[in-house]
Design goal:
Blueprint lengths: L11 E4 L20 E8 L5 H17 L4 E3 L3 E4 L2 E11 L2 E9 L16 H5 L5 H15 L4 H11 L4 E8 L4 E9 L5 E5 L4 E4 L3 E3 L1
Antiparallel strand pairs: 1-2, 2-6, 3-4, 4-5, 5-6, 7-8, 7-11, 8-9, 9-10
């Protein structure tokens, strides 16, 4: 992503591994050499780009593997209840740099990640090729970024089990919100109904069940 930040819109960089991979809010990202798809792309900004890329990644995975992945607000790809991949978007002047990482060929994870992370190989026993997934992903991204914000939000809500009726804990960094999800706002933020009946708008934070 650091290299991509200086490149024009339309640029795509693929890595065999990440030595400084990060997630949202500075969280670390484990990326074993040769075991996943690690790609950064330079795109035009979009009001709900992270959500659109989640839809694109989900579609690419469905096309290549026939699996129906879940998506957790705002940027996680989930499979069998564990994290399969993640998306990170950073703005640089008039460009958006999007990093997408998807676990593919890992046979195991470090002990601290094993309960919450998974790979396509672990879940299916099959070895899918990163280049096939990349081709499908680039095509899906090209279509997803053309969608208007209301279309992205509607499709995201229809594809995610986390959108409505999910009991969640949201760590915003400043406080903990506990409640049940009730869709997305018009701007793509997560809405959570607390135990007191109030609707909280989650702008940023880690969402867990």
């Amino acid at each position: 992503m650091d290299i991509a930040a200086s490149l024009p819109v339309g640029s795509v960089i693929v890595a065999d591994e990440q030595t400084s991979g990060i997630g949202r809010h500075g969280h670390s990202w484990d990326s074993e050499r040769g075991s996943g798809l690690y790609v950064s792309m330079v795109l035009e900004p979009h009001p709900v780009l992270t959500l659109a890329l989640g839809l694109a990644a989900r579609e690419a995975l469905r096309e290549v593997t026939s699996l129906e992945c879940d998506i957790r607000w705002p940027n996680d790809l989930m499979l069998a209840g564990r994290k399969l991949g993640g998306i990170l978007v950073q703005l640089h002047e008039k460009r958006a740099v999007a990093g997408i990482g998807i676990n593919m060929l890992q046979r195991k994870f470090p002990d601290e990640l094993a309960p919450i992370a998974t790979s396509l190989l672990i879940e299916t026993g099959l070895e899918f090729r990163p280049e096939d997934l990349l081709e499908a992903l680039l095509k899906a991204v090209g279509a997803a970024v053309l969608l208007a914000t209301p279309q992205v939000i509607e499709q995201w809500q229809n594809c995610s089990t986390w959108a409505r009726g999910k009991t969640v804990r949201v760590d915003s960094g400043e406080r903990l919100i506990i409640g049940v999800t009730c869709g997305l706002s018009d701007s793509g933020y997560l809405l959570v109904r607390t135990r007191e009946g109030q609707i909280e708008t989650v702008v940023a934070g880690g969402v867990r069940d």
